[in-house]
């Protein structure tokens, strides 16, 4: 892969030969602005990051988390861009700047959770489990192809995000570079062999009906394949991943301390090794715990950004050849300290009662919504003798633009189910819960 091509300003959906005329903003700033003003991004304000929203203490939502990841991503991308421009003087001839490279990473990082369903990762499992195990999900298995069934049984927020970013519904038309930097897992769900040594193959990054869109992006940017079924990562995707890793490691710990799940003293002991000689316990005196947490968090993130850019600079050539395929935060000097934070977070935060209760509720809500809508759709188009008045009422709750024509026994229903999953996964936590209560008769409109 060549940087001149990887940083091309072409935009998804533009006709061949189209030349951008934007003068006041770079193409990557346009990406950022379009994302900020999009409805899927706004919906992140009511989607859980880790904790249900408490009454007294501030904790992060998917929205605030995404904004912070984007901020870290911009710093990573700009610093990496300065390194690339000094190493490859020919890049300057393309007009690319370090700020634009930072803009690519910032925009991609802003969207990194845009495909996540309600209730966090529990929501992903709930959607997957519905098709794997629930009778009303299993009914579709014999109507779709094997690769389509693999998509349904393995809901993946990254793939859902790619689907949303290329969808005409939202009209984002992002640059190919931003789309590629977003795509941490450049492979489909069903592959014959997964190379466990390659980080980019840990999950999948697009559903099978977005394969042509992904191939178009990869061809435009000159992204090659690492195997017959998988592609190489765009090198900037490593920075997007690192920005997310840094933020959830440090900030989930901060939220856990704010919620009283991890003591202030233990939080300090976990962050201090990252700061090394910058840590001064004397400065913790005469300030509130909240003030100290903010200062320590900022210092830790700054140190991790520096270490990550150094690692990127060391392995950038190997990334372009497709030989390097690890998380940057796994190889930086502070990796062992991040691992310790993760271990404490899993035990004391992610498995805390308040988080587990939220996850349990999420399973019930999403399974319940999928059940009633899936049953109604299946009865109408694939078992009409069982289509009931209840089914008819349920289908009237679907969005006005939901495609309810053209389906039947001889028609593959995968696109129909995909759109149903789009609808449910795009809900906010609160909307999903309220709709579940109503379709289950637990509450009534206006109550």
What's the Cα radius of gyration? 23 Å
Q: Which CATH architecture of the largest domain would you pick? A: Orthogonal Bundle
Average residue pLDDT: 90
Question: Helical amount among residues, as a percent range?
Answer: 55-70%
Strand pairing plus helix content: what structural class? mainly alpha
**Could you name the CATH homologous superfamily of the largest domain?**
Hypothetical protein af1432
- Estimated share of beta-strand residues: under 5%
- Give a count of the beta strands, DSSP E runs of length 2 or more: 0
Sheet with most strands: none
Global geometry:
globular
CATH topology of the largest domain: Hypothetical protein af1432
The helix count comes to 19
What's the SSE pattern? HHHHHHHHHHHHHHHHHHH
Query: What's the CATH first level of the largest domain?
Result: Mainly Alpha
Distance between the termini: 58 Å
Q: Which stretches are poorly predicted, pLDDT < 50 over at least 5 residues?
A: none
Q: How many distinct domains?
A: 3
